[in-house]
C-alpha cells in the first residue's frame, strides 16, 4: 500500500484497508438488495472499487452511500435496462432508463467504438441516467483499443445548481465534466478527466461522510465567503469554477450542448460522446512513436519548486492501481456506514 493521495484532510490512522474483493462483495449485496439486477450491481461495484484503487476517492467506494440513498428515495430507478435507440433523424441515443449511469456509459463507449470502426468517427447522446462514474476509466479503455474519445455532460442545472459562475456568489451550474482520452506512447493512453468546478462534487460528499475538511479555495458559503466546511455547501453554498473564467466557460459550453442541443435532461446530465478511430488518420505505430516523443518531453521537464516531476494525465491513476495491491484505504467512518447499510438491508 502507498500513502493515500486525497483532498480530504485525514490522517492514515483514520482509514481502514479493505480488500477489493471484500468491498465489491459488500457493494454488490447492497445494490442487489435495493432491487438492481446482478449484472448492474456487479458492474457498478467493480467500477467503484477500481476507481478507489486508482486513487479517485471522490468517485469510488464512498459513492455507494449516495447511490443507495438515491435508489431508496426513488431518484434512481432500479431493475432497468440500458437501450440503444436509433432516432428517425439518424442520431444514436443510449437511454439509461433513469437508473445509475455507469452501465449506460459502458454501453455508450462500446457502441461509439463499434460505430467508429465502420465510419472512422461517431457521435451519440447518453440520456436518462444517474451518476455515470469515473469517465477516465472508460476513456482509458477506449484509448487502449485505439480510439480518441471526447465526452461532455450538461443540463439539469435547475436540480443541480452546484457551481457559481465566475464572478458570481450563487450556484447556478452543474459540475459539467469533460473527458478526453487518446492512445499515448509506451505507458498507455493519455486521459484528461475533469469537472469544470474547482473540486468534484463527490469530494464534498466524501468529506461530509468522513467528517473531514476540504482544501482552501474550493467552496463559498451561502453569503459568498470562502469555506472549507462541506456543510457550507449543503447549507446553500456553492463550488467555485476551476480556473476562474475558463472553468466557467467550459461549464457553460457543457450546458449549451447538454440542454440547448440535446434537449431537457432527466435525472442528471445529458452527455455527448464523440469517438474517432485513430488509425483512420495515422498508422498506429507511427502515432505511438510521435506520442511518446511528446510525452517524453513533458516527463523530462525540470520540476518546479514544490513538485517531484511533471506528470502525464492518466498515468497517475494507472500507477496507483498497480501500487494499491488490490487494497483500498477507506475512511473508517465511511466504511462503517457502508457496512451498517448492508447489515440494515439484510435484516
TrEMBL record:
Please indicate which superkingdom the organism of origin belongs to: Bacteria
Q: Output the Pfam families linked to this UniProt entry.
A: Ldh_2
Q: Tell me the InterPro entries matching this sequence.
A: Mal/L-sulf/L-lact_DH-like_ah, Mal/L-sulf/L-lact_DH-like_NADP, Mal/L-sulfo/L-lacto_DH-like_sf, Malate/L-lactate_DH-like
The UniProt keyword set, sorted, is: Oxidoreductase
Keyword field contains Oxidoreductase = yes
Q: Which residues form the signal peptide?
A: none
Family recorded in the similarity comment: Belongs to the LDH2/MDH2 oxidoreductase family.
Question: Which protein is depicted?
Answer: Ldh family oxidoreductase
Upper lineage: Bacteria, Pseudomonadati, Pseudomonadota, Alphaproteobacteria, Rhodobacterales
Amino acid at each position: 500500500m502507498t500513502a493515500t493521495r486525497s483532498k480530504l484532510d485525514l490522517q492514515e490512522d483514520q482509514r481502514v484497508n479493505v480488500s477489493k474483493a471484500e468491498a465489491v462483495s459488500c457493494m454488490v449485496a447492497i445494490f442487489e438488495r435495493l432491487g438492481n439486477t446482478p449484472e448492474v450491481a456487479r458492474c457498478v461495484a467493480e467500477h467503484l472499487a477500481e476507481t478507489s484503487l486508482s486513487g479517485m476517492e471522490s468517485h469510488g467506494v464512498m459513492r455507494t452511500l449516495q447511490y443507495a440513498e438515491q435508489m431508496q428515495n426513488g431518484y434512481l430507478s432500479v431493475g432497468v435496462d440500458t437501450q440503444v435507440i436509433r432516432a428517425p433523424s439518424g442520431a444514436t441515443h443510449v437511454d439509461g432508463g433513469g437508473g445509475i449511469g455507469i452501465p449506460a456509459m459502458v454501453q455508450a463507449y462500446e457502441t461509439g467504438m463499434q460505430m467508429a470502426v465502420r465510419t472512422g468517427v461517431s457521435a451519440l447522446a447518453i440520456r436518462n441516467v444517474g451518476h455515470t462514474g469515473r469517465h477516465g476509466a472508460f476513456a482509458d479503455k477506449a484509448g487502449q483499443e485505439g480510439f480518441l474519445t471526447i465526452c461532455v455532460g450538461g443540463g439539469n442545472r435547475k436540480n443541480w445548481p452546484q457551481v457559481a459562475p465566475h464572478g458570481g456568489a450563487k450556484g447556478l451550474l452543474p459540475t459539467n465534466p469533460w473527458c478526453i482520452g487518446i492512445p499515448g506512447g509506451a505507458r498507455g493512453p493519455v486521459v484528461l478527466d475533469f469537472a469544470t468546478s474547482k473540486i468534484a462534487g463527490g469530494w464534498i460528499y466524501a468529506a461530509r461522510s468522513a467528517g473531514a475538511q476540504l482544501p482552501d479555495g474550493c467552496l463559498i458559503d451561502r453569503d459568498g465567503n470562502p469555506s472549507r466546511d462541506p456543510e457550507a455547501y449543503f447549507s446553500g453554498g456553492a463550488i467555485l469554477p476551476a480556473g476562474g473564467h475558463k472553468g466557467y466557460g467550459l461549464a457553460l459550453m457543457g450546458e449549451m450542448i447538454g440542454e440547448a442541443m440535446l434537449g431537457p435532461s432527466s435525472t442528471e446530465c445529458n452527455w455527448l460522446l464523440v469517438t474517432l478511430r485513430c488509425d483512420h488518420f495515422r498508422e498506429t505505430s507511427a502515432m505511438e512513436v510521435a506520442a511518446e516523443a511528446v510525452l517524453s518531453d513533458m516527463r523530462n521537464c525540470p520540476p518546479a519548486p514544490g513538485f517531484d516531476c511533471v506528470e502525464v494525465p492518466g498515468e497517475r491513476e494507472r500507477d496507483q492501481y498497480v501500487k494499491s495491491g488490490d487494497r483500498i484505504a477507506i475512511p473508517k467512518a465511511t466504511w462503517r456506514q457502508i457496512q451498517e447499510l448492508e447489515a440494515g438491508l439484510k435484516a
